[in-house]
Amino acid sequence: MANLHLDKPWRTLVDALPNIRGQLGVFQLANAKFEIIFIGCAGAREPFGLKSAVETASARCNTAVHLRYEITSSYLTRYRELLMLYQAKHGNLPQDNPTERLGRLSPSS
Amino acid sequence: MNLELTQEQNLIIAMVRRFVREEIVPLELNLDPDADELASEDQARLIEKTKAMGLYGLDIPPEYGGPEIDLVTRTLIAVEMAQHRAGLYAPCYGTFGGAGLAQLFEATDAQKERYLYPTLRGEKRGFFGLSEPSGGSDPARAIQTKAVRDGNDWIINGSKLWISGADRADFGLVFARTSPDKGRGGVTCFIVDTDNPGFHVRRIVHTLRSAHYATELHFEDMRISNDNILGEVNKGFAIANDRLTRQRIPYAAGCIGVAIKAQEMALDYVPQRETFGAPLATRQSIQWMLVDNDIDIKQSLWITLEAASKASQGLGFRKEAAMAKLVATEAGGRVVDRCMQMFGGLGVAKDLPFERWYREMRIRRIGEGPSEVQRHVIARELLGASLR
């Protein structure tokens, strides 16, 4: 079974942004202390996939310093899964995420 | 079976068709291509419209406030409701309401007060928990979740897989083995509250349906009152089986609706699209695809309506429902595949709905009993006791 959590390595936004391509997927933004402040997804309406979705989100999240992302065609379910995992661990959503209608997960790890 | 639709049926179909084309399809232009939900304000607005149409709560019996609609008409409506991008798994995004869990119509009065009526009012959500990691096609034998009597309660341990909506549900129907040596006669249906401390949604299962996920559930010493048994002890399989049989008709109808829409789009496209100096419509290879689509659609539709007609008359319809599910899911897949081929590169892009239908239609040959199980059901009906 694949790891439920997004476990790709963190990179600084400055280094990562020029190299992100236009695939569909999910991403997390973190502050300087590697605390997740936003979870996002790049869907098929996004003009340049992950590239434009991360650019838009990072411009809105003032404290974003780090980025990690995962390319997936199941971007909607993976996005909801990451939000639910975060909520299960912290009791709330990341500071820059809007309220979402979510289910409840109680993962064993 | 009367093959002519009544005037009332034609009016209802026209009304639903207009609703799909004028209310649902325009909203989809601004949604993610894989979306399965509307914005809550759109949802609320459209529910008011379906209520005004007298078609809200289509699967709710009239005595509980649903419209008086026979199963043949209901099937025709399901065919229309599926004719948009999300139509296969989210027909009209739920704006026609649902019955919740139809099994609860047979519940005790106390259970109805606690679970059925709040569900019909939209205050509670339920899930149906049958399939397990050990298998979903033969639930009677595959169920390993155990319920052991403890005074006036039962203690349930085990797990379920491929369960839709459990993470957002307030309660669910969970099937557990209560008599290990009795096969299908040893399964009981429990109504389980999801705030029970022994209830856990362990993970999401990602599938080809990229907007909708199934879940895996674990039950750890989950204590359930004897009052929460739906029906009788060891009689749960009949509840599950009835649901599985009935579900096959609307399941087939959804596939037919999508196939009709895909064919309609292809019929619009091929006279316009030119290759090597002539419209695609003039090519025999294209014409034959359209012909095969039309045959697939008509065969599926008539077999499904026959199943609905028999069910509507109170006649046995197990074989016909299995046949409808088998034929419509396989035909739907072929039709969408041919339409993708006619549209070429556009057919596989997310700009058009074919790629979503193609992925989701593939699931239909497995969900609600795979094609092989449907053939098994039909064979048993044909051969009778010799195969039982």
Describe the structure.
- The complex is a heterodimer of chains A (109) and B (388).
- Chain A is built from three helices and four strands.
- Helices cover 29% and strands 19% of the residues of chain A.
- The model of chain A has no long low-confidence stretch (mean pLDDT 92).
- Chain A has a single domain, classed as GIY-YIG endonuclease (3-Layer(aba) Sandwich).
- Chain A is α+β, with helices and mostly antiparallel strands.
- In chain A, a hairpin with a 5-residue loop joins β2 and β3.
- Chain B is of the alpha+beta class.
- Chain B is 46% helix and 15% strand.
- Chain B has eleven helices and ten strands.
- In chain B, the strands form three sheets. A four-stranded mixed β-sheet of chain B has the order 1-4-5-8. Chain B has a four-stranded antiparallel β-sheet with strand order 2-3-7-6, with no helix packed on it.
- In chain B, β6 and β7 form a beta hairpin.
- In chain B, α6 runs parallel beside α8, α6 runs antiparallel to α10 and α7 runs antiparallel to α8.
- The longest helix of chain B has 34 residues.
- Chain B is globular.
- Chain B starts with 6 loop residues before the first helix and ends in a 5-residue tail after the last helix.
- Chains A and B meet through α3 of A and β6 of B.
Q: Beta-strand percentage of chain B?
A: 15-25%
Characterize the biggest β-sheet of chain B. Answer: 4 strands, mixed
Helical/strand content category of chain B: alpha+beta
Number of helices of chain A: 3
Give the mean pLDDT of chain A. Answer: 92
Question: Which secondary structure elements does this structure contain, and how are they paired or packed?
Answer:
The complex is a heterodimer of chains A (109) and B (388).
Chain A lengths: L10 E2 H4 L8 E6 L5 E7 L6 H12 L5 E6 L3 H16 L19
Antiparallel strand pairs in A: 1-4, 2-3, 2-4
Chain B lengths: L6 H22 L11 H13 L18 H11 L27 H12 L5 E4 L9 H4 L3 E5 L2 E12 L6 E7 L9 E7 L5 E7 L8 E12 L3 E2 L5 H34 L4 E2 L2 E2 L4 H29 L5 H26 L1 H4 L5 H11 L6 H13 L5
Parallel strand pairs in B: 1-4
Antiparallel strand pairs in B: 2-3, 3-7, 4-5, 5-8, 6-7, 9-10
